[in-house]
Design brief:
Elements (H helix, E strand, L loop, with lengths): L8 H16 L22 E6 L4 H16 L4 E7 L4 E7 L1 H7 L3 H10 L2 E10 L2 E9 L4 H5 L2 E5 L2 E4 H4 E7 L7 E2 L2 E10 L5 H16 L7 E5 L3 H31 L14 E6 L2 E6 L1
Antiparallel strand pairs: 1-10, 1-11, 2-10, 3-8, 4-5, 6-7, 9-10, 12-13
Helix pairs in contact: 7-8
Amino acid sequence: MEFSAGFDSKQALIDVRDKVDLARVKLPDATDEPEVVEVNVALFPVLTVLLSGPIPERSLVTIARHLQDRIEALPGVLEAAIGGDREPLLEVIVDPAVMETYGVQYAELFALVSNNNMLVAAGAMDTEAGRLVLRVPGVIEDLEDLLQMPVKVEGSRVVTFGEVASLRRSFKDPESFARVDGQPAVTLEVKKRVGANIIDTIAEVREVVEAERIHWPAGIQVGFMQDKSDQIQAMLTDLQNNIFSAVILVMIVNQPSERHSSTPRSVSVSRERMRISEKPWGFCWEHS
């Protein structure tokens, strides 16, 4: 649905939802539940930064996340979402022979990791500022926490997690792939804040990327997509030129009528000297 400029978005959303609720009873039983979602085109990405190169995926994602922090620190940027990265995880590689030797079952390992990787509620505290909920952190923060975790006790010997399994850092299985010339790639979709100048915002993002680029490996390639700042600048330049040209034409047309006018004027148009100089953004003139 489209609306005219200046409409009340909140009231329009309420009206549309009311009409959808009335029409819901007429839909077939197998129809999915209808949803009413407001789409704000002002929050669409205005620039996409593309990073690619023959470097490890982890290094590429680390560079993208550092660049994300620098871009989101700009006043005109609302968000810089990373695309093409995968969520990191710890991969556990278990040796069945070792587990059989110690008499450890797979279920015991699953329960051990699950029970030692959670936030434990410890009650609440009422203060003058409000009610504070207390939780005891019991999450796994690094590899050593998991490797030193006791799995089983046999007599005086404690079998740790690192003795029955090995760990390595990895990523979740990819749901999509991003490649540029056969090389892995990640993207940063930059969204500007409402009311921010799109031309200035894109220029600032480009400056940040160029400033950070000198610290990256030589093999990383940088590309920009969805950059419409040049088109917007050209449209503004044409608009300014048209306005100045229209003003000049109006003044030229009015000169003959004012020259033959009998109404006394303090300043005669025929004696006016006008200098017009061409500028990169249009024309300007001076009166004397």
